Amino acid sequence: MSGHLTSRKIVRNVGLTLVNQFLAQGYALVRILSALKIKPSNYYNWRHWQPSRQEKRRESLKPYILDVWKTFKFYGYRRIAAYSQQTDGSKVSEYMTLKLMRELGIKSRMQKRYRKPKTVVTVNQKPNLIRHLHDLSGVWQTDITYIQLTNHKWVYLATVLDPEKRKVLGYKIGDTMTAELATSALQMALDKHRKPLIIHSDMGSQYTSAEFNIKCQNYGLKHSYSLKGHPYDNGRMEAFHSILKREEVYLKAYETLTQVQAAIGWYINFYNRNRISNVA
């Protein structure tokens, strides 16, 4: 029904525009309508048309939908509708949001990922303590991800996540991927939150390093490791980095480490406090 209404609106607007253009050039109305094969009754209906309450509401919602999308371009219609339900002002259903986004010609922006350098694990497999755990309330997960600058150099983000609450507890960004980077992110989390029973990571050299494991021992943390070639063992941590890249990193062009630090700091605060989530 809405598609039919939209097509009628297009015909009305185009027809009136053409008639008015010819009238402005001095042509008689009767000749114009005859040439354009427009019934006089249709023309006068167009001239005196008034939008219905539903159409007025649809038009009034469009600036709101557009403003939310401009702020969160990675939001699709479901999360924009959810956002409207959680904030003051207009409440918009998922169906209406989808329709209005189509009329506005907007949709969630997701960019393709870039290729990161491959890493090789050279140490023997260490124990995975969480593989069969169903309750992750005493577990933190940590990992390092790559972010590329416009000059194609890499910077690195180490993150510590509470997988049960899906909150970032600590992070560190640097231009070298070192044990100090991984350890600093863990220290930030330990300084601000009650320590867990287990810290889980992959088998990367930063996490198998003496520096990182001494830090774990000093705080009485058990260190658990993903199996080689099984990144889903650290699934919620991997999911956060994937979301971060889709919703922030791949939509921006960073020239400096400082720009990355500012952007990631903003996003993590947004993720922890305000982000509307369907799953992760």
TrEMBL record:
GO terms assigned for molecular function: nucleic acid binding
Domain (Integrase catalytic) ranges: 123-280
Any one biological process term the GO annotation gives: DNA integration
InterPro entries, per database record: HTH-like_dom, Integrase_cat-core, RNaseH-like_sf, RNaseH_sf, Transpos_IS3, Transposase_IS3/IS150/IS904
Signal peptide positions (record): none
Organism domain of life: Bacteria
Pfam families: HTH_21, rve, rve_2
Function in brief: Involved in the transposition of the insertion sequence.
Name of protein: IS3 family transposase
